Amino acid sequence: MKYIDEYRDPQLARNLLAAIHRVTTRPWTIMEICGGQTHSIIRNGIDQLLPDAIELVHGPGCPVCVTPLESIERALAIAAEKEVIFTSFGDMLRVPGSSRDLFMVRSEGGDVRIVFSPLDALQIARDNPQKEVVFFAVGFETTAPANAMAVWQAAREGVENFSVLVSQVMVPPAMRAILSSPGNRVQGFLAAGHVCAVMGYEEYEPVAQEFHVPIVPTGFEPVDLLAGILATVEQLEVGRAEVVNRYARVVSREGNRAATEIIRNVFEVIDRQWRGIGMIPASGFGLRDAYARFDAEKKFNVSHICASESPLCMSGRVLQGALKPDGCPAFAKECTPEHPLGATMVSSEGACAAYYNYHRNFTP
């Protein structure tokens, strides 16, 4: 199938690997931002085929993983309300709060439903005017356009029983936070192709220039990732630090103008808490005042709810590329997919889940 098989072509992959081995003369540390890229790298053993001098570290680009614990607790509180239909993408239902998850709330009688789009949640609100319908609006810039569109449409139609619990975050501020960290080792980035498809890559150019790091938007298939790694190493070896697009079939410099316009219309940039990382200034989206009546956090008065992470969970260091999942003492012991300490073990894009599912450096 075009755009699938050709980007898994073994000969193309071997050619790219040979080129990477040929150009690499020094140690380099490269971070793939996206959790989907992490899973592809571990599943295909890409990190094990690279020169020993190249280390891939895993970044905070899993939206489920970086959703702060207090947001999970607020979601749990809202979902337990009798007159609420709480809707979410399926990958949020297993994310642990302090003592339970959304599946447990559903087993206790809460009306918790999986939807495939926030517009599905809006339709549930239309169909159930006697109920309050809440959508858990989680994600990076990739999900922001659809979440914004659902709010915009609700306002346009006057669907007042619909609201969103917002936990939207952005990639560039996270990059800046990682690069500004005293212990940072990251020398180059593979940028998430789907985020760049929405936002473009113009906003990465100041980051590359300020911190002198190459940033390469790329895709998720083995050939995509190897091409991205090669483009990053080629720059590192000669001291260049530019944004080089290696996902041109999907990504343009300006991105999707219609998508960014609806984001700007409905959301404003705010400070956001990141699970395991902490507060990153100007790193997320919140509803503008014109749409404040659709803010579930305010509607249900749950802003005061706070929570503390398990002291055993080291997912914050994993999300910052400071620790590999198998370096956490609790990995595959106290923390498993059946009994997770953090979201990185249960998310389909979590680095800990990738290491566990593909038996990286441990025997189940």
From TrEMBL:
The keyword Transmembrane helix does not apply. The keyword Metal-binding applies. Keywords: Iron, Metal-binding. Belongs to the HypD family. GO terms for biological process: protein maturation. Pfam families: HypD (PF01924). It comes from Chlorobium ferrooxidans DSM 13031. GO terms for molecular function: 4 iron, 4 sulfur cluster binding; carbon monoxide binding; iron ion binding. It comes from the Bacteria. This is Hydrogenase expression/formation protein HypD.
